[in-house]
Design a protein that fits this description.
This protein is mainly α. It has a domain of about 120 residues. It has 6 helices and 2 strands. It has a two-stranded antiparallel sheet with strand order 1-2. The mean pLDDT is about 95.
Length: about 180
């Protein structure tokens, strides 16, 4: 089950990388430029390590009796992932590519969160290992991911304020957790 799941997830990521490359090519043709290249390699490494660690630890572990809860969180994250991707359209990418004067996307989940896809990644990197009882992977990868996302989000938000109306459009939108009324 673990190998099938990991294989399916790898195919999903491969297809997403193809989409991201096509979107990047289009954005570069339109005058876009990349930021955050120096930390992107660490994100790629972490995600590669995640799969290796998941398979190594998960193949020696027993799924917990409560596996359904992280599985449900993973499935909800997939809904948010594809809602995010479809809302951004050609602007969706795995890299930080800035297209000056492009409209700021404020539809879909971006009405409620500045970075819904990062919430998806946080959820996945914690939930997937928990489904298979890979607790060390869940903790280690999640902590490193949070450190990298801190850098990533700061870089992305600073970059998006250059040449776009991002700061104005997203001023009242929370980063990762939707705010309740009165927050």
């Amino acid at each position: 089950m673990l190998l099938w799941f990991a294989g399916t997830l790898l195919v999903q990521r491969w297809v997403e990388l193809i989409i991201a490359q096509k979107n990047a090519a289009w954005m570069f043709q339109q005058g876009g430029y990349e930021r955050g290249r120096e930390h992107y390699k660490y994100i790629v490494f972490l995600h590669g390590f995640f799969f290796i660690s998941l398979i190594a630890e998960g193949s020696r572990s027993t799924p917990p009796s409560w596996w359904f809860f992280p599985a449900a969180a993973f499935m909800l994250a997939q809904i948010l992932r594809y809602w995010s991707i479809s809302s951004l359209g050609r602007f969706w990418n795995t890299r930080i590519i800035i297209l000056p004067n492009a409209p700021v996307v404020t539809r879909g989940p971006y009405r409620f969160l500045r970075h819904p896809n990062y919430l998806v990644v946080i959820t996945e990197l914690l939930a997937i290992p928990l489904i298979f009882g890979a607790y060390g992977t869940a903790v280690t990868v999640s902590l490193v991911n949070l450190l990298l996302l801190r850098i990533r989000i700061q870089t992305e938000e600073k970059s998006l304020t250059d040449g776009t109306d991002y700061a104005i459009a997203m001023n009242d939108v929370p980063r990762l957790i939707p705010a309740g009324e009165g927050d």
